[in-house]
Amino acid sequence: MIKIAVDAMGGDNAPYEIVKGAVEAVNERKDITVCLTGQEDVIKRELDKHTYNKEQIEIVNASEVIETGEPPVNAIRKKKDSSIVVGMNMVKKGEADGFVSAGSSGAVLVGGQVLVGRIKGVERPPLAPLIPTEKGVSLLIDCGANVDARPSHLVQFAQMGSIYMEHVVGIRNPRVAIVNIGAEEEKGNTLVKETFPLLKACPGINFIGSIEAREIPHGGADVIVCEAFVGNVILKLYEGVGATMLSMVKKGLMTSLRSKIGALLIKPALKETMKSFDASQYGGAPLLGLKGLVVKTHGNSTATEVKNSIIQCISFKEQAINEKISECLAVKENINHQAE
Amino acid sequence: MIKIAVDAMGGDNAPYEIVKGAVEAVNERKDITVCLTGQEDVIKRELDKHTYNKEQIEIVNASEVIETGEPPVNAIRKKKDSSIVVGMNMVKKGEADGFVSAGSSGAVLVGGQVLVGRIKGVERPPLAPLIPTEKGVSLLIDCGANVDARPSHLVQFAQMGSIYMEHVVGIRNPRVAIVNIGAEEEKGNTLVKETFPLLKACPGINFIGSIEAREIPHGGADVIVCEAFVGNVILKLYEGVGATMLSMVKKGLMTSLRSKIGALLIKPALKETMKSFDASQYGGAPLLGLKGLVVKTHGNSTATEVKNSIIQCISFKEQAINEKISECLAVKENINHQAE
Q1: Residue B71 burial (CB < 10 Å; 0-12/13-18/19+)?
Q2: Would the CB atoms of B147 and A189 count as touching at under 8 Å?
Q3: pTM metric for this prediction
Q4: Across the strands, what pairs with A178?
Q5: Chain segment B55-80, per-residue pLDDT in tens
Q6: Got the DSSP string for B184-200?
Q7: Looking at the complex, does the CB of residue A181 fall below 8 Å from at least one CB of chain B?
């Protein structure tokens, strides 16, 4: 029986949408248990509104809530009875296989490293959201807190990202590329130039070379490797350009009677297209390389996204991703040792 | 009389659109001269198709052409009789006030530094394209070849960018922001953390703090300061997300009869909106900090963009931007000397 802990108090729509998502997950999968962490009475009241198998949902009381604005390190250290700390500790102790939170990004990143802990051999756990492309989705790795990364970190991101895309998302032999300012090997900043030959020589990944930012939305690679600062810029610009274009298109359509009538006719189709290109629709961003999966879902997640994030954790466990990451890094370590 | 050199051979639409753009520029401004550099007979044949004041356009013969794929340093060194090298040398010798090229970006960047040369005090000349936003345009500085920049470079970018936006684009007291992964001062990588207090202390600029990538398309600042790797990612992702969304919207509109009819009605309005959000529509990207303005226009520039780039050079000269940059950096140098 796979058990996933879920932060019932985090995010803009908590607890309502979070609890609803948990109920939808257990109604879809009879072989799992969800542990909702948070204020027991509040969660209970929400749960009473739904029909589900009572044995599949537990409440684990946590009296405190970490707010979005709080300094993460402090919050994790001091609010020991918060829904995030309680959930992460369950993963740490092996009482849960994964943890999903729509709460404070900072607290989830810090908590993942400090409480859940890294798999042996992992230098830095990357945050790796799935981003929409013309062809489906790509994994953008890293968008987390690892600024000023070293080449060896980026190589591990490529390895972990490949395992994730192959076994959780189901893309065979995923194409790995490094974000660069030109297609040629000699282009780039110091970090990229140093990382490029390491990726080329790395066994077990399908490295296709550099990717220019222009090609990312076209689906030019499945695993997009970059350091966190650049990843963060890519992720947020994706959102920003999308939102701005939508708002400008809407405004543009109100300029003439002809376009106003047209706008009414295209509304459903346009909505559908825009939705498929909204990064927040693809469930959660996994924080990889930890002893147990931690998934950060968007702050404004609805029940569907929470459910998808729970299902994501299940695939992760079923596919034994952590074991695969451990093996992969161990192979690499052996090669390094032999080379020394 | 202001004289602008124009590379008649560079870009996808050369020489036709370039020559046409030069003719449009002189027909609009009776007080300028344009020198077209390139193969004399080819240019002459194009010019013969147009009506214009013969005294306002000169041809300066240059027998060679630098192709887009050529390694820039080599090309600049070896092709001494190319349209780019000849044009840049005119600026260097003071025979022209500015130079416009739609040719090889690499060659323009290298040529600008090697041939035209930097203004005294400028550490690195940044390439600063105007990018479209919801509110108008912002200057993205730097998108050039200065990877692995130092904090002092970024401070100069902020100063030069402010002068450009105020005096060429006409934005009073332009808001300067540094690209960051969060709004707080303590966020960011080493470069940003070191640059932030320097920008805060820098006299003569209107520094408003950090800008997250999400806010760039909304027009959150007028001068967007970043190092070239990040700037390149922003510029190209802008293009990529825009192009992908447009193609997905088009595809989406073909899914039902209703939306197909709607699509016909909105076509003109949609085209207009998309055009206003196309980064390539805003003429050229100036390479700042050189002894004379060098403007790189998009490779697929049409006559209108070439004309706009020429006009850009004229404002630059009329507003004595280089003198303003020199003064501004000299003031800063004095402050530094006093502090020592």
Answers
A1: middle
A2: yes
A3: 0.89
A4: A210, A225
A5: 999 999 999 999 887 888 899 999 99
A6: STT-S-HHHHHHHHHHH
A7: yes
Strand partners, A136: A133
Euclidean distance between CA atoms A15 and A65, whole angstroms: 12
Query: Chain A: residue nearest B189 by CA?
Result: A147
For residue B167, which of B41, B328, B278 has the smallest C-alpha distance? B328
Return phi, psi of residue A91, to 5°.
-65, -45
**Mean pLDDT across the stretch B37-62?**
96
When CB atoms are compared, the residue of B190, B239, B269 closest to A252 is: B269
Q: Of the candidates A179, A216, A277, which has its C-beta nearest B245's C-beta?
A: A277
- Rounded-to-integer distance, Cα A68 and Cα A5, Å: 20
Q: Tell me, what's the pLDDT at A333?
A: 59
Which residues of chain B have a CB within 8 Å of the CB of A242? 241, 245
Identify which of B212, B252, B258 has the shortest CB distance to residue A236: B212
A37 pLDDT band, cuts 50/70/90, is: very high
Instruction: Choose between B184 and A333: higher pLDDT.
Output: B184
Give the pair of three-digit tokens for residue B71: 């390694």
Residues B238-296: tens digit of each pLDDT: 888 888 887 888 888 888 888 888 888 888 887 777 777 765 566 688 999 998 889 99
Asked whether the CA dihedral B225, B119, B74, B43 is positive or negative, the reply is positive
Q: Which of A237, A276, A281 to mutate to test the interface with B (most CBs of B within 10 A)?
A: A237
Q: B3 forms bridges with which residues in the sheet?
A: B33
Confirm or reject contact between A252 and chain B (CB < 8 A). Answer: yes
ipTM above 0.90, yes or no: no
Residue in the structure block whose two tokens are 């004095």 = B334
**Would an 8 Å CB–CB cutoff place B280 in contact with chain A?**
no
CB contact under 8 A, B218 and A244: yes
